[in-house]
Amino acid sequence: MNNDMAPGGLTFSLGGVRLSFQAAGSGIRLVGAPGYRDFITSGSPDLTLQVVAGPFPGQNLGAARFEASNWSLFSTSQGDVYRLRIAFPGPFVSVYTTLLFPDGRNGQIYIEDELGGQPPRTDIVCPPPALDELLAVNLMARQRGLLVHACGLCLEDGTGLLFSGYSGSGKSTTARIWQQAGAARLLSDERVAVFRRSGQFWMGGTPWHGDGLVSTPLEAPLQRLFILRHAPANHARPLKPTQAVTALLERAFLPFWDALGMAFTLEFLQDLCTQTPCYELGFLPDESIIEFVRCLS
User: What does the CA dihedral 157, 209, 245, 221 come to, rounded to 10 degrees?
Assistant: First the structure.
């Protein structure tokens, strides 16, 4: 049996947090989602979810506490319930209802296919599509860190550089330049997790890649942070902590539905941008940016 298929369970390391899926019945086989093979781990999980093939037993959830384009959040006596609806090509629609218990470490996922008369699934892809990122953001906001639109690089000495930006600001270009020059190992070219470990800020790769298709489970201590922009010349401007926090808030995945999570995220960003040198970086799309960044004090 491949290591990304399991009759019992699968555990993934996603940028500093470990998420475990366990089959709730003997007739269920869990299959690792495409692109997640390198993120399978045997470490102790931060959140364990029992996977059930069937409808959520508590259908009357009342009014949603928060609603997004394809998911809703409900509060119940058992815990928070996230209901995610995914439409696939054709008439196929799946509903993923996730109950997170108040302890923050355990929960259940009920997977229901909206195709009348169809037998329940036996092979279930984990993490389920779209739910993976929602769960990761939720977990990070529980005193762990946050997920950022960024390219992450690990230099030869093991330290990390984080280049954050909007789509089209140069994350994939930055990844390509450093990769082709053999000047650094790439963690991710699109989304990077930032977290604290033993009093130090770290960053970790995630499965959610950009145009460069770079996604690795590598981690590195964070040395410097850059806000990217295109420019006619290589240029770096030091940012004050408040400036860097404002820029990252616009480039991060925020838990808007969670007041405590938002409060933690703001405090985390303030500490991150106070303790880490932050720059606005304008750059030319060639290898000259590598030496320019290396020479920044």
Answer: -20
Tokens 């960053």 -> residue: 203
Class of domain 145-294: alpha beta
pLDDT digits (tens, 9 = 90+) for 249-280: 999 999 999 999 999 999 999 999 999 999 99
User: In 3D, which of 147, 245, 222, 154 has the Cα closest to residue 192?
Assistant: 147
Alpha carbon 83 to chain centroid distance? 19
Q: Is the peptide bond before 127 cis (omega within 30 degrees of 0)?
A: yes
Strand-pair category, 17-23 with 66-67: unpaired
Please measure the distance between the N-terminal and C-terminal CA atoms of the chain and give it in whole angstroms. Answer: 50
Domain boundaries of the chain, sorted by first residue? 5-140, 145-294
Question: What amino acid is encoded at 29 in this protein?
Answer: R
0.85 cut: is pTM over it?
Answer: yes
Per-residue DSSP letter, 255: -
* Chain-centre distance for alpha carbon 224: 20
